[in-house]
Amino acid sequence: MERLMSSSISSKTHFKSSIFVPPIAPLEPKRVWFPQTWLSKSPVRCSLMGSGSADAGEASEIKKVESNDEIVPFSTASDSDSTLKIKEWEVQRFQDEIASSQGIRIRRRPPTGPPLHYVGPFEFRLQNEGNTPRNILEEIVWNKDKEVSKLKERKQLYTLKKGLENAPPTRDFVGALRASYARTGLPALIAEVKKASPSRGVLRENFNPVEIAQAYEKGGAACLSVLTDEKYFKGSFENLEAIRNAGIKCPLLCKEFVIDAWQIYYARVKGADAILLIAAVLPDLDIKYMIKICKMLGLATLVEVHDEREMDRVLGIDGIELIGINNRNLETFEVDISNTQKLLEGVRGEMIRQKDIIVVGESGLFNPSDVSYVQEAGVRSVLVGESLVKQNDPGKGIASLFGKDISL
């Protein structure tokens, strides 16, 4: 295999970029799950605009770094940390290529780190470009990557797995949506407990998550969505836990920017019944892997899409029960509810009906005409937060949203 990979690189051939991935090495106990944060001890070859190839595992060579127009020699023979950082960077580049091939424009983390160019036995570190988030979603994801890394240091995965023994049993999130739709003939409501958003700021100053959740349940919500992101939405996992411990019967969706399987276990321990996965952030393999983990833990998964390409990707994944269509462009934060109709037309809509997938309409829904519009497009559930939580009585806001009382 190594001979085959090496033979594809000619010392006389100049080319822009090629990345070769070795057979997957067994995961070490301290490594994070494959594929998104996989770190293998096997070499990943990367050659950019140069002849030959550089192997991250070849520590016997003396390499040089070009920085600020100066050539500074350094040895990697005894610098295992440098070697590891190079491998981490190589894996990140590989992950970025996979994501890009699937139309994912959101980068998992800033493109910083070890040399951006390999040229034979020399390494050249160039000025990093693009270290500023392109949009708000990318900024959130970059922050989440740092946040989760710190949380994982304080609460390791094996500790969370032990905590599952005392976690409350999961409720049937999908079943609750189906039952509500059958009872009312209207899209089942997933009412969102949400204090703030990046685009609107603080939505409710007098914010008591338990009281809001109780009002939603009394007003006829089938399920609840609880924001857990702290920096941008003023939410927390403590809010999720408090709502669950308050005796709320509605199944709970953990509304989080999931980038690591660790977050799924943490949400389960805190009382979640379902998890949000965002196709604009997660490659297909990640979504498949996380769905398997969720099923193992008894959690439902709401996979969110924003455009036709994301919808096609998700429809190609087995085990999908819920698809959320977000009418908000997460890069510009502009809202257009016609996006729902566009994504449910033709073959896509027919495939959804054949698979009996529940489509959840998200964002831009404020009144009965909005709800009616997305229902006619094929939506059987709606996720609404802003237009409800801003009401003095969020429960009565539900009746205004649907134009009638849908409480039991």
Question: What is the correct CATH architecture of the largest domain?
Answer: Alpha-Beta Barrel
CATH superfamily of the largest domain: Aldolase class I
CATH topology of the largest domain: TIM Barrel
Going across the major beta sheet, what is the strand order? Answer: 7-10-11-12-13-14-15-16
| The top level CATH class name of the largest domain | Alpha Beta
Distance linking N and C termini:
64 Å
Overall shape: it is: globular
Secondary-structure-derived class: alpha/beta
Count of domain modules: 2
| Average pLDDT | 80
Q: How many beta-strand elements?
A: 16
Calculate Rg over CA atoms. 24 Å
Name the helicity range. 25-40%
- Give the percentage of residues in beta strands: 15-25%
Largest sheet: 8 strands, parallel, barrel
Describe the protein.
By secondary structure, the protein is α/β, with parallel strands linked by helices. The longest helix has 22 residues. It has two domains: 123 residues, no CATH class; 260 residues, Alpha-Beta Barrel (TIM Barrel). The chain contains 15 helices and 16 strands. The protein is globular and about 70 Å long. Helix 4 runs parallel beside helix 8, helix 6 runs parallel beside helix 15 and helix 8 runs parallel beside helix 9. The strands form five sheets. Strands 7-10-11-12-13-14-15-16 form an eight-stranded parallel barrel, surrounded by seven helices. It has a two-stranded antiparallel sheet with strand order 1-2. One of its GO terms (biological process) is L-tryptophan biosynthetic process. It catalyses: 1-(2-carboxyphenylamino)-1-deoxy-D-ribulose 5-phosphate + H(+) = (1S,2R)-1-C-(indol-3-yl)glycerol 3-phosphate + CO2 + H2O. This is indole-3-glycerol-phosphate synthase.
